[in-house]
Specification:
CATH superfamily of the largest domain: Vaccinia Virus protein VP39
Largest sheet: 7 strands, mixed
Organism: Phenylobacterium ferrooxidans
Radius of gyration: 23 Å
Structural class: alpha/beta
Distance between the termini: 56 Å
Shape: elongated
Number of helices: 12
CATH topology of the largest domain: Rossmann fold
CATH architecture of the largest domain: 3-Layer(aba) Sandwich
Number of domains: 2
Protein name: Class I SAM-dependent methyltransferase
InterPro entries: SAM-dependent_MTases_sf
Strand order of the largest sheet: 3-2-1-4-5-7-6
Length: 305
């Protein structure tokens, strides 16, 4: 890595930290309280001293798409049910491209470090106003924080009621760390994880609504408080995404080998009742969470033909 690349990487890391910063909530964004105009003390000097390198990179907007993806991952951590379409991601990318271009213009026109320091707060305020508007247009009343958590592999298996696991195994919505997949692999079971925010080694980063699951491939497909939870949420919300989930659900069933199983929680009784004779549906309840948490329903669908 040469010195210019190191300078760009340093700025890139600063921008990413701003997106991932804690203490900000979706509720604050929806209420118009999310304007982050505070500028790190050394940032104006960094931009001014290295403006000949950083200005062209900012003007190119090459990082805008990656920044939009970073923001979407931040959204998922606050509300797992938010689904950013390709159009939404593109619009968020345009907002970041505008902010990067505005910063490049500020560096080009500034005659001193002080002018950079004076101009950044207003630039950031305008950027966050545009960003908040784009999010409100995309998600409306759904722009709010929800409760979510990660569960141990042992608990996930208990909830799903898996007395056996036929390989290969696909965990749909395995989470960023793919804990269950790692647990299965350590037990000598062939497992693959898939998640929109996948970061763990050997896990596929993909959208479960558009993923090609293949046909007759999987011995077991697992999804604990993932795919079916989102499906149920959009179904009960009467959201058009429910139809996309129904189509993806049938693609998952088609991806099973004969005798293969799709195990998930919560159950989807409104769909399971109409699956037909090619599938066997077994539902159960689990009340072992403890701490007063509600009983969970789960389903295992076996492909018979």
């Amino acid at each position: 890595m040469n010195s210019n690349q190191a300078l760009v990487l340093g700025l890139w890391r600063r921008i990413r930290r701003r997106i991932a910063r804690t203490g900000l909530s979706l509720d604050m964004v929806a209420a118009g309280e999310a304007e982050l105009t505070t500028v790190e003390a050394d940032l104006p000097a960094y931009l001014w001293v290295y403006r000949e390198v950083l200005g062209p990179w900012l003007a190119s907007a090459a990082a805008a798409g990656d920044l939009a993806d970073q923001l979407v991952r931040w959204l998922h951590r606050h509300n797992q049910f938010l689904y950013a379409t390709a159009q939404t991601r593109a619009e968020l990318g345009q907002v970041y491209a505008q902010a990067l271009a505005d910063t490049a213009e500020l560096l080009d026109e500034a005659r001193s470090q002080q002018e950079v320091e004076d101009g950044l707060p207003q630039l950031l305020a305008e950027h966050h106003q545009r960003l908040a508007l784009a999010l409100k247009v995309a998600f409306g009343a759904r722009l709010r924080d929800t409760v979510q958590a990660e569960y141990s592999p042992a608990l996930q298996i208990a909830v799903l009621g898996l007395d056996r696991v036929e390989t290969p195994v696909l965990d749909v919505g395995c989470g960023a760390t793919a804990a269950l997949v790692d647990y299965l692999r350590n037990a000598g079971i062939e497992g693959v994880g898939m998640d929109r925010d996948a970061q763990a080694p050997g896990v596929v980063q993909a959208d479960w609504l558009t993923q090609d699951y293949g046909r007759g491939i999987w011995g077991t497909v697992i999804s604990h408080l993932g795919f079916s939870l989102h499906f149920l949420h959009h179904h009960l919300s009467d959201h058009e995404l429910a139809f996309d989930y129904a189509r993806a659900y049938m693609r998952i069933l088609a991806s099973l080998r004969v005798g293969g199983r799709f195990a998930y929680a919560p159950a989807l009784p409104f769909l399971e009742a109409v699956l037909g004779d090619n599938y066997r549906v077994e539902s159960r309840t689990f009340d072992g969470y403890g701490g007063g948490l509600p009983i969970e329903s789960s389903t295992v669908v076996t492909r018979l033909a």
